[in-house]
Design goal:
Muramoyl-pentapeptide Carboxypeptidase, domain 2; two-stranded antiparallel sheet; 22% helix; binds zinc ion
């Protein structure tokens, strides 16, 4: 959730593909005027087979209460579109799908989270400007097997698909959550984390060393005005 580093933009990830020009796919309710004005896109517009499991839409998160409305969507800034499309395509070829746990996060939610976990190592300190999730330029993701028929040792499924073993759950505030942790993280989980990182890196999106699931897009560390856009 936290990153304070600003990844180097790449030409591939900085471009916005033509397919991302629409902010909502056919059959999808249009985005709010504020979300469109902020350059946000519904992830399903750019990655139609993305699995979306917004954990803050449920009480199944570190806060233990629902922080997002029931109709919240996974919104990302258009500057992430090309990179995420590249990552998803690579993962698709390898038999995996991206699962989105969190995307754009409104400032009011960030303030709420920091009150509960006032540790800037784990929750970005809310400030006068938006960076990272608050600017729609960071995502929290994991991997699922593309085939619903894949045997599932993990207790958790998303969209009928089994999640890969990554060594910890989302928002695990232990050292095992560090992206490159080895102590207490199985070799399988270390390998799965690397698969995710390499695919995201191919799209110019980089992991936050403190959390294996958090990835920053181009310019995510640049302070910008708060977006003030709703999640639906
Ligand atoms: Zn995050």
């Amino acid at each position: 959730m936290t990153p304070s580093v600003s990844p180097s933009p790449t030409s591939a990830a900085a471009a916005t593909p033509r397919s991302a020009a629409r902010s909502a796919a056919p059959g999808m309710a249009p985005l709010s005027a504020k979300a469109r004005a902020a350059g946000l896109l519904d992830i399903r517009t750019i990655i139609p087979d993305a699995l979306v499991d917004l954990r803050y839409k449920t009480s199944d998160n570190f806060v233990g209460v629902r922080l997002y409305p029931a109709d919240a969507r996974c919104l990302v800034h258009r500057s992430m579109a090309a990179g995420l499309i590249t990552a998803a395509a690579r993962l698709r070829r390898e038999g995996f799908r991206l699962v989105f746990w969190d995307c754009y996060r409104p400032h009011s939610v960030q303030v709420h989270m920091f009150k509960i976990v006032p540790n800037p190592d784990w929750v970005a300190r809310p400030g006068p400007y938006a960076t990272s999730h608050e600017s729609g330029r960071s995502v929290d993701v994991t991997l699922a097997y593309a085939s619903p028929a894949t045997p599932c040792a993990s207790a958790r499924r998303v969209g009928g698909r089994c999640l890969l073993s990554m060594g910890t759950n989302f928002d695990d505030f232990t050292a095992r959550a560090h992206a490159f942790a080895t102590d207490g993280v199985s070799s399988t989980a270390q390998r799965n984390r690397a698969v995710l990182r390499h695919a995201m890196n191919a799209g110019g999106i980089v992991v936050y060393a403190g959390e294996w699931w958090h990835f920053d897009g181009p310019g995510s560390g640049v302070p910008r005005p708060h977006l003030d856009a709703p999640l639906s």
